[in-house]
Write a structure and sequence with these properties.
The protein has 17 helices and no strands. With 416 residues, it is an all-alpha fold. It folds into 2 domains: 217 residues, no CATH class; 177 residues, no CATH class. α1 runs parallel beside α3. The longest helix is centred in the N-terminal third of the chain and has 52 residues. It is globular and about 60 Å long.
Length: 416
């Protein structure tokens, strides 16, 4: 059993690692092909889509996977998956319509419109069909899903590479390559599940739908708030600065997104053995503290390395047209150590099953970033957004540290 769990975890980590590596290469080709302005349009469209896509995660894995594990029969599994799929699809439709409404109100350039509408296909497919991935996780068999994900990723990278080699500079063309990845992955997952379980006739149960919706509401709200906090700076910055400046900021954040994903990968690999498997709370609490210090050190070391190599990193990935990214990256890379600390401290809420804590934290972070950016970005542009990135992550770490300290085990609890 341990070997199966370890193998399943390795498949998950390998997928995330390859996604980071290939993602960096894809972004580099995008930036060089589109230039600062075209890259800015693509990144802005992607930010809008990512926020809208959070509405599709109505029934998160935290809700679905435990119920799948407890399901007594394949029929019960199928019933659960169908209801989760419908709820996620409904959330995706709401998210897509909200995205269209936002685009209609803000009236961006045609490039942004077209890219967002095409990239928005992911809102309708990724999370709804993702219930099959949850089903695989419940059976500790992530290998097929990882292979499907890597196959779709390879197709996207090949299409982007072909467009880059053909000197295509149309933003919508690259958006189609991203949409193809989602379509291929959804098709592979749906086909695999239908072959394994078939497509039985499952009656709709309003009570089950309400139960899933109620159980997943806090996770859903947390995810929406988190995505808003992570991307709202770009929505505020884009109309406030020239496209080339926004492109420089978006390029900086793209590098940091891939770098900070290392924190999630490390936490996912460490937490099952050193936090979730601990029988005593004081052991788990102490482990979270040590993990927070360790990940913060890793983030700081990596951030300092990126800051020192920023001119070479930017030149290698984006080219000389993105020279303005260097200064931004030097500062933001060091600040990103806060993200590593936050990921580690969030393990406490996950261990104690307290999604309310996560929702409160991201609500405070989002409110802080909104207040800061609305005042500072019109005055200081990109540097105002970098400062907002620091302030927002500092608030997240502060909330996590306070919760960790306030819920430290007492002597009586430790002795018990």
């Amino acid at each position: 059993m341990r070997r199966r769990v370890a193998g399943n975890l390795l498949w998950m980590l390998a997928e995330r690692g390859l996604q980071v590596g290939v993602g960096i290469g894809v972004v580099a080709m995008l930036a060089r092909a589109l230039g600062p302005e075209g890259f800015a349009h693509f990144q802005y469209a992607q930010s809008i889509v990512l926020i809208a896509a959070s509405f599709a995660l109505v029934c998160s894995a935290e809700v679905v996977v435990p119920r799948l594990v407890a399901a007594a029969t394949p029929a019960a599994e199928q019933q659960l998956l169908r209801h989760a799929f419908v709820l996620r699809l409904g959330g995706g439709v709401v998210g897509y319509l909200l995205m269209c409404a936002y685009l209609g109100i803000t009236a961006p350039l045609p490039d942004i419109w077209h890219a967002a509408l095409v990239l928005g296909i992911a809102i309708l497919l990724r999370e709804p069909v993702g219930v099959v991935t949850a089903w695989m996780q419940a059976h500790t068999n992530n290998r097929p899903g990882t292979l499907f994900s890597l196959a779709a990723l390879a197709i996207k990278a090949s299409l982007v590479g072909a467009l880059f080699a053909a000197h295509v500079t149309n933003v919508a063309g690259y958006a189609i390559a991203f949409a193809v990845e989602v379509i291929v992955l959804a098709t592979l997952l749906a086909t695999f599940y239908s072959r394994q379980r078939g497509a039985g006739d499952v009656p709709w149960q309003p009570e089950l739908a309400r139960e899933l919706l109620g159980a997943g509401t806090l996770f859903w709200i947390s995810f929406i708030l988190m995505m808003g906090a992570r991307r709202v700076d770009q929505l505020i910055l884009q109309p406030a600065v020239p496209a080339a400046e926004f492109g420089a900021y978006a390029a900086c954040m793209q590098i940091l997104d891939n770098f900070t994903m290392v924190a999630t990968i490390l936490a996912a690999g460490i937490a099952p053995s050193y936090v979730y498997a601990r029988q005593r709370f004081d052991d788990a609490h102490a482990s979270i503290g040590r993990i927070a210090l360790g990940l913060t050190g890793v983030g700081l070391a990596g951030g300092l390395a990126i800051a020192a190599c920023a001119p070479w990193v930017v030149a290698l990935l984006y080219g000389q047209a993105f020279a303005a990214t260097v200064g931004l990256l030097r500062m933001a890379a060091i600040i990103s150590a806060l993200v590593f600390a936050d990921v580690a401290l969030t393990l406490l809420a996950a261990h104690l099953r307290k999604p309310r804590w996560v929702a409160i934290k991201w609500a405070l972070v989002l409110a802080t970033i909104l207040a800061w950016d609305l005042v500072m970005i019109p005055r200081y542009g990109n540097w105002g957004a970098i400062a907002g990135y620091a302030v927002g992550n500092a608030v997240a770490v502060l909330v996590g540290a306070v919760l960790w300290w306030r819920h430290r085990p007492t002597r009586q609890m430790a002795s018990a």
